[in-house]
Amino acid sequence: MPPAIEIRDLEKSYGDVHALAGVNLDVPEGSFFGLLGPNGAGKTTFINILVGLVRKSGGSARVFGHDVEDDYREARDRIGLAPQEFNVDRFFPIREVLATKAGYHGVPRDVARERADEVLKRVGIYDKRDTRFDWLSGGMKRRFMLARALITEPDLLILDEPTAGVDVQLRHDLWETIVDLNDHGTTILLTTHYIEEAERLCDEVAILDSGRIVDVASPDELMDRGTDRIAVSLRDPPSSVPDLSALDGQYEAAELTEAGLAVTAQQGGLVAPDLVRALDRAGHEIVDLEITRTSLEEVFVEMTRQDDREEMEVSN
Ligand code: ATP
After folding, report:
1. 42 C-alpha to center of ligand 1: Å?
2. Region 24-45: what's the mean pLDDT?
3. Among 154, 177, 243, 284, fewest CB within 10 Å belongs to which?
4. Which residue intervals define the domain ABC transporter in the entry (predicted)?
5. How many angstroms separate the alpha carbon of residue 258 from the centre of ligand 1?
6. What is the pLDDT of residues 113-157, one digit of tens each?
7. Going from the N-terminus, what domains does the chain have, and what CATH number goes with each?
C-alpha cells in the first residue's frame, strides 16, 4: 500500500527564492502528521504543490500513489483542503457552496445536498445553512472551511493553520472533530504555529526550515532531545552543590537554588531516581521534587534557530 504522501527531492523555486530545496518525506496512511516550521519555511508551498495550485520545479510528489501533476484528478479527488485563506464563494448560501463543490467532484446533486447537511451538522453550523459566507462570524468561517474540506469525504485531510485566531472553545471543538476523523481512518496533515496543538494531536511531526526537512519524529521523541530540569527542595538547603558523582555524568548541570538544588539532564525522568538516591545517601532530606520537561516549543525554537546558525556558518 503506498503512503498517503510520498515526497522525493521536491523542489520549488520562485526566482531566486528556494521555497523547497529538496524535500523527502513519507506520511503513512492513517497517521496524524504535523508540518511545523517558522514563517516562510515553505509549508504553504508544500501544500499547494500537493493540491495542484503550484507547479513543482523538481522531484516528485505522490498522494496515495498518484502523481500530483501526471495523475492530478486521481490525487486531487482524495484530498480535502482547509486552507489558511478564506477563498470562498461569498454570495451564495453556504449549503449551496458545499453542494456545488461536491458536484465538481462528481457527486450527484441529491447526494451532494445530503452530504452538505451532514458536514454542516458535523462542524456545528447547520442552523446557518442558508446564510452566505460573508455573514458568518470569524469562528463560523473556520468551521465552514473544515466542512468544505470534508464535503468530498477525503482520505487525506490537509489543514493549514485551522485554528488561527479562533477562541479556546472552538479550538477544542475543531480538535475533537479532526481527532474523530483520524480515528475513523482519515489521514491528517496539519500545519500550525500552535506547537501545543501539534504536541497534543500529532503522531509524528516534520520540522521544515528554509525549505528543508530538519527532522521527522514523534513529539515525544523530539521532546526527549531537549533538556529537562529537576528541581529538588531539601529540608536544609546546602551551601554547596552536593557530590553527584554517583550519577555517572548522566546530567548536564547542577546548581543551588533557594529551595535546594536544580539539575538539568537530557532525560530527567531517568536521572531522578539516581539523584534521589545520591542525595539520600549524602544525608539530605528531600521535601519535594519536580521534573519540568522541555516543551516541544522549546525544542522547535532551538532546532530552527540552530539551523539558521549553521546556514550562517556555511555562508561565512
Ligand atoms: P507562513 O508560516 O508564513 O505561512 P510558509 O511556511 O507557509 O510560511 P511559504 O508561504 O510556502 O511559507 O513561503 C516559502 C517562501 O517562498 C517564502 O520565502 C515566500 O516569500 C516565498 N514565496 C511563496 N509564494 C511565493 C510566490 N508566489 N512568489 C514568490 N515567492 C513566493
Report:
1. 6
2. 94
3. 243
4. 5-235
5. 48
6. 999 999 999 999 999 999 999 999 888 999 999 999 999 999 999
7. 5-222 (3.40.50.300), 227-292 (3.30.70)
What's the gap in Å between 26 CA and the centre of ligand 1? 22
Q: Using CA of residue 221, residue 223, residue 225, residue 231, what is the dihedral sign?
A: negative
| C-alpha cell belonging to residue 224 | 526527549
Residue owning the nearest CA to atom 16 of ligand 1: 19
Q: Classify burial at 122, counting beta carbons within 10 Å of its beta carbon; exposed 0-12, middle 13-18, buried 19 or more.
A: middle
Sorted by sequence, the CB contacts under 8 Å of residue 12 that are 6+ apart come out as 18, 19, 20, 42, 45, 49, 54, 56, 57, 211
Instruction: Tell me what percent of the residues of the chain surpass a pLDDT of 90.
Output: 66
- Residue 305 to residues 198, 210, 214, 301, 302, Cα–Cα distance (Å): 19, 11, 11, 6, 5
Strand order in the sheet with 58-63: 17-27, 5-14, 58-63, 66-67
Q: pLDDT-derived band of residue 201, with 50, 70 and 90 as boundaries? A: very high
Instruction: Measure the CA angle with vertex 152, ends 147 and 156; round to 5°.
Output: 90
pLDDT in tens, 291-306: 998 778 888 888 887 5
